[in-house]
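Lab notes, practical 5.
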Amino acid sequence: MNLKNKEVTVGLLWHSLASGNLGVGALTESNISIIKAIADKNNIKVNFLILGSGAFGIESLENELNSAGHSIECHVARVFNKSFLKLVRQCDFIVDIGEGDSFADIYGFKRFFYLWLSKNIAHLLSVPVILAPQTIGPFSNIFARLMAKQVMRKARKVFARDFLSKDYLEKIGIRSNALESIDVAFRLPFTKKQFEDSKAIKFGLNISGLLFNGGYTQNNQFNLSINYRDTVIKLLEKLLELPNVEIHLISHVVDSQLTVEDDWSVAKELASKNPRLILAPVFNRPSEVKGYIAGMDFFVGGRMHACVAAFSSGVPVVPMAYSRKFNGLFGSLGYHRIADCKKDSEDEAIKKILEGLENREVLKDEIDKALQQVNHLLKKYEDVVQETLISTAK
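Output from the prediction step:
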């Protein structure tokens, strides 16, 4: 099939390049990278239409796309406004990632309703919808569960990013159009940062501001089995006792408007109290923070996509998990080096981290083996994207 000079407008629903959460940006840049690679291979021009929480883009990314013959626009997804219908009508198909990589009601019914409604609007306008790899469920509210089943049955494909989500889809009866893949952030491009040659072990630590502050309620919202703040401080004390460890505090969410979520303010405060703590800069692009993380010898993170950045760049990592998305994602790859903040005691979590640091070469070997599965799992998603891209090109 000759596709030269063909064009496709791809709606990236619930994606964002303007979020202070670099995890959201990582998913957006990764999906753009995946779609662009497929389009370039098939000589198709792509007009990317981002529909999410922010109308701002990244100039350097826009320039990269323009130089390759593609285009990008960013819009706020105002689902109750006629402008949203107009934007959806422009799309040949939509890729929806739920701006935070989940379709569930654990973050409240209002958020769920917006995600549900936007998908249904696309269905009503006969625009094909692909749910990109994400955590599906749980839906604890019976009405949310019924609504989710209704809208997912209409999707061209629903991709679970881990075996737990795939099992959940089976359980609620979504089978014929469901597949298991893996997080698209494994495809996030990066350039590894080269640090000055040093014999010290570079220990990257991402402290989740949200967990450090006790969640949005500031009262252990996520029902952790540990006091996250105390555990982090105790971990730092133990690390500072080690003679050959260089500690880098790396933020993955920078949000001056919502300080309860902000990793940077926590890292900055802790770094101000000890000159041995290195405060990593604020990064403009997810690919930049991934490049910095890639330069570490070992990594611990409270933000899942900070851990994915480490894992996918081959850095030994111990995630500090606070939800099933951690266990599901890394468990799908046969990687179980997790400090489970919902089950472990403070001492158990710290012990797992310090043992991981000591055995980091073993962890690296486990990660290298696990990464072989990533290409296989992502190919399922990329094949569907390619098929849809080719079939809608005009």
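Observations recorded by the TA: The first strand starts at residue 6 and ends at 13. The radius of gyration is 21 Å.
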